[in-house]
Specification:
The protein is mainly alpha-helical. The chain has 14 helices and no strands.
Length: 393
C-alpha cells in the first residue's frame, strides 16, 4: 500500500522560504566581510608589486623557486641513478641557473668546459705525480693558466677546483672519479635548462625590456639627486654610490641580453623589437648625468646658480617624468610616446638662459660661468636624447 505523500501547507512553504532567504543573507554578509578584509590586502599587494623593490623581490623569488625545483630534481635523479656524490649535480643546477635560457646555457657551457678541463688535468697529474701538495699546486696553476690562455675566463676557477678535487678525493681510479664528476655536472646543467624552460620561462627580449626599464628608473633617481645637489648644495653620496653600482651592473646585463636577442632568442617580431640605438641613448644619458654630477660637485658660488633655479627645476621635473614614462613604455611595449611637456620646459629654460648671457661676466669668475653653462647644456642634451628615444619606441 502506497503511503500518501505529505503535502506542505502554505505555512511550511513560507517557513522554508524564510530559512533559505536568511541563509542567503548570512552568506552574502560573510562574502562581504571576506571582501572587505581581503580586497585592501590584494590592492596593497598589487601596489607593492608595482614598485621597483617589489618587482625586484618578485623576480628574485621566481629565480629562487626555479633554483629550488632544479636542485631537488637533480638530487632525485642522481639518487635514482645511485651516483655516489649527487650533490655535485645539485651544485651545478643551482649555479648555472639564470634569468633566461640563453644565459643559463652560456653558464652551463662554461661550467662544462671547466669541469672537463679540470678533470683531465687532475687525472694526468695524479697519475704522474701522485696525490700530494706538489701535484696539487702545479696542477691548479697550469689548469688556470691554460684556461685563461684559451680565453675560458669564466671557467678558469672551476677548472682549478675540479682538478684539485680529482687529485685529493679520487678513489682507486682517478679516471672513473673524473668521469662521474663530469656526468653529475652534465645532469645538473640539463636539469637547470629544463626547469628554466618549463617554470616561469623568460625570453631574452622580455628580460631586456625589464632591465632597460629598471635602468631608466635608476637614472631618474640619480638625476634627481644631482639636481638636488645643484639647487641646495646637499648630496647623498651613499645613495648615489649604491645607484651607480646598480646602474653599471644593469648596463652589463643589458649588453649580454642584447647578444641573446641578436641570436634569435626572442618571441617578438622584428617590427616590435627594441631598437638597439635606444640602449645607446640610455648609455649616453648615463654618461651625461655623470658629467652633471662632476660639475655640481666642483661648483663654488650659489648666487649665480640660483638665478635659473625655477627654470632648472621645471626642466628637471619634466626630464624625470620623461624618464619614468619611457621606463613604463619600454617594459609594457607601449609605442607612440609623446613628450610634449619637455619641449615647453626646454624652450622656457633656453629663453631664460639667453637673457642670462647679458649679465656682465666680471661679476662672476669665468670658471663658475663655464661650470654652470656646461651643467645646463648637459641638462639640455639629456632632455633631447629622451625625445629621440621616445621617437624610437
Amino acid at each position: 500500500m502506497v503511503k500518501p505523500s505529505k503535502r506542505l501547507s502554505p505555512t511550511d512553504n513560507r517557513g522554508k522560504n524564510s530559512q533559505a532567504s536568511s541563509f542567503a543573507e548570512r552568506f552574502q554578509r560573510k562574502v562581504g566581510v571576506l571582501r572587505s578584509h581581503h580586497v585592501p590586502i590584494i590592492s596593497k599587494f598589487i601596489t607593492w608589486a608595482a614598485t621597483p623593490k617589489g618587482l625586484s623581490l618578485i623576480i628574485h623569488g621566481k629565480m629562487a623557486f626555479k633554483m629550488g625545483v632544479a636542485a631537488a630534481l637533480a638530487l632525485v635523479i642522481a639518487q635514482k641513478l645511485q651516483w655516489e656524490y649527487p650533490f655535485y649535480a645539485v651544485i651545478a643546477a643551482i649555479i648555472v641557473m639564470s634569468s633566461t635560457h640563453g644565459s643559463t646555457f652560456k653558464q652551463g657551457v662554461q661550467r662544462l668546459i671547466g669541469t672537463v678541463t679540470g678533470a683531465i688535468a687532475g687525472v694526468i697529474f695524479v697519475s704522474v705525480l701522485g696525490s700530494n701538495f706538489w701535484s696539487l699546486g702545479i696542477c691548479v696553476f697550469i689548469t688556470l693558466w691554460l684556461a685563461y690562455y684559451w680565453q675560458f675566463n669564466e671557467a678558469a676557477k672551476l677548472a682549478g677546483y675540479v682538478s684539485a678535487i680529482v687529485i685529493l678525493s679520487h678513489s682507486s681510479s682517478p679516471l672513473i672519479y673524473a668521469w662521474h664528476r663530469f656526468l653529475e655536472t652534465l645532469l645538473g646543467i640539463a636539469v637547470a635548462l629544463l626547469v628554466n624552460n618549463l617554470i616561469f620561462p623568460a625570453h631574452a627580449d622580455t628580460e631586456l625590456r625589464r632591465c632597460l626599464s629598471q635602468i631608466l628608473v635608476n637614472l631618474q633617481q640619480f638625476y634627481h639627486l644631482v639636481i638636488e645637489c645643484a639647487l641646495t648644495g646637499t648630496y647623498d653620496r651613499q645613495s648615489v654610490d649604491a645607484l651607480k653600482i646598480t646602474i653599471i651592473t644593469s648596463l652589463r646585463t643589458s649588453r649580454e641580453l642584447w647578444q641573446e636577442v641578436k641570436q634569435g632568442q626572442t618571441n617578438e617580431s622584428s617590427e616590435t623589437q627594441l631598437n638597439e640605438a635606444g640602449e645607446f641613448l640610455i648609455r649616453r644619458i648615463w654618461e651625461h648625468i655623470l658629467a652633471m654630477e662632476h660639475t655640481v660637485l666642483a661648483r663654488k658660488q650659489d648666487t649665480f646658480w640660483q638665478m635659473l633655479s625655477p627654470q632648472i627645476t621645471a626642466l628637471s621635473n619634466e626630464t624625470q617624468n620623461s624618464l619614468l614614462t619611457l621606463a613604463m613604455a619600454v617594459k609594457s611595449r607601449e609605442t607612440h610616446i609623446s613628450l610634449t611637456e619637455i619641449d615647453v620646459a626646454l624652450f622656457q629654460a633656453t629663453k631664460e638662459l639667453e637673457q642670462l648671457k647679458t649679465i656682465p661676466q666680471t661679476d662672476y669668475s669665468i670658471d663658475e660661468l663655464l661650470r654652470f653653462f656646461t651643467f645646463f647644456y648637459i641638462m639640455e642634451e639629456v632632455a633631447r636624447k629622451l625625445q629621440r628615444m621616445a621617437g624610437m619606441i
